[in-house]
Amino acid sequence: MAKDFKTLIRMRKWALDDKRRELGEMQGVLNNLLTEKDALEKAVIEEQRVAAENPELAGFAYGSFASAVIAERAALVKRISDQEAKIDAFRDEVADAFKAVKTAEIAERNRVEAERVEEDRKEQAELDEIGARSATRDDGLI
């Protein structure tokens, strides 16, 4: 029985580690999207600077660039929002896995404590029996 709890705890810890690893990967995807959005914003600022320096040359190209940036920004914001929602939902799964580990650990701790109490009770019963026998011998009853 003791081995069963230890195996259960180990399996639940592995599951928790896998979930944490997956959450880390999801967070990495989100970080990449945020980095991509920052790069896009920097590109817009640079393009605006170039357009301000050469208004007659940039006038034709900047309009289509701005339209593409608006579409790309909207797509990135949507992907970021979706990824954040996915991460929030997955955090609940990680919390559930953590709860499962703690539940198994508490059950094991309670089992060990119950075993210890039972051993102490048996030992006390033996000592009481020895004491009772010793007392009857001292009184001359045996």
Automatic annotation (TrEMBL):
Residues 112-142 are annotated as: Disordered. Keywords: Bacterial flagellum biogenesis, Bacterial flagellum protein export, Cell membrane, Chemotaxis, Coiled coil, Membrane, Protein transport, Transport. This is Flagellar FliJ protein. Belongs to the FliJ family. Residues 112-125 have a biased composition (Basic and acidic residues). It holds the Pfam family FliJ. Residues 16-93 form a coiled coil. The keyword Transport applies. One of its GO terms (biological process) is chemotaxis. One of its GO terms (cellular component) is bacterial-type flagellum. Gene3D superfamilies: 1.10.287.1700.
